[in-house]
Specification:
151 residues, alpha+beta, four-stranded mixed β-sheet, three-stranded antiparallel β-sheet, binds zinc ion
Length: 151
């Protein structure tokens, strides 16, 4: 099955189930999983053009951020010898932040290179809540046996 722009249906990079695509964003159909990933073709778009960037978010049904709200998110990092998680905090919608990681905007090298999917996010919450949640989330994931990167 092919969709517009000739991009095939992709499976979830976390659980392997089918995804539903809006614009360049793939959302896992399993709500228990809830992972998303950006189609790699998005990186060939003029992401530095704010109008293009905004349209990509709108096409992907990513809601506008609301000032003051914070989120804590978990990225899946996969690549050469790396199978880990990245925990971060953002004032943007987490999917927008994930796209910024992919395009290298305010992004650590490992997240830019290896962010394969966004596993989950929590929020909105206050800044203070997000500061402490980022720490406890990373610790919880480490206790579950994951290698966890943070900024
Ligand atoms: Zn999934």
């Amino acid at each position: 099955m092919k969709l517009k722009r000739g991009v095939k249906v992709e499976t979830c990079r976390v659980c392997g189930q089918p995804t539903r695509r809006s614009g360049y964003l793939h959302r896992c159909i399993d709500s228990q999983c809830g992972a998303v990933h950006w189609n790699e073709n998005v990186l060939s778009q003029a992401l530095d053009d704010s109008k293009v960037f905004r349209k990509i978010l709108v096409d992907a049904d990513v809601l506008e951020w609301i000032s003051g709200q914070k989120y804590v998110y978990v990225l899946l990092l996969k690549g050469k010898g790396i199978d880990a998680l990245y925990v971060g905090m953002t004032g943007l919608h987490p999917y927008e932040r994930y796209l910024n990681h992919k395009r290298g905007y305010k992004a650590s090298k490992c997240a830019r290179q290896y962010a394969t999917a966004m596993k989950s996010f929590e929020g909105p919450m206050t800044y203070e809540e997000a500061i402490s949640r980022e720490i406890t989330k990373a610790n919880e994931l480490r206790e579950e046996g994951n290698e966890v990167y943070q900024n």
